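Q: Here's a chain of 106 amino acids. Please give me its 3D structure as tokens.
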Amino acid sequence: MSKIWDLPQSIFWGLLPGFATAIGGAYKDTLFEPFEPLKFFRSPIIAFIWYIIIDKYFPNESVILKIGFSSMMERICVEYYKAIFKPEIINYKKLYYIVFYSLWFI
């Protein structure tokens, strides 16, 4: 019998690390820039997508590992997006480290 997902549980555990990241980022950046709802909800959505993917491939692992891995993958995706696909604010030192460490994992 194949398990799809326990959707309510996956929604909770998938959104948890994303909202933690979003709340921390909003708290940190409110002194320097205005609150932007699209940026705020980006982290929870990406963390939820990664949690679903991780839960599909690793259904027997503990939830704490899945939360940590989805949080890590969310940060990698968001920082990669901010470094590569926003040419007006490219930080070349940051870009170098992202490309270098991406190639290191290959």
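Q: Can you summarize the key feature?
A: Residues 7-29 form the longest helix (23 residues).
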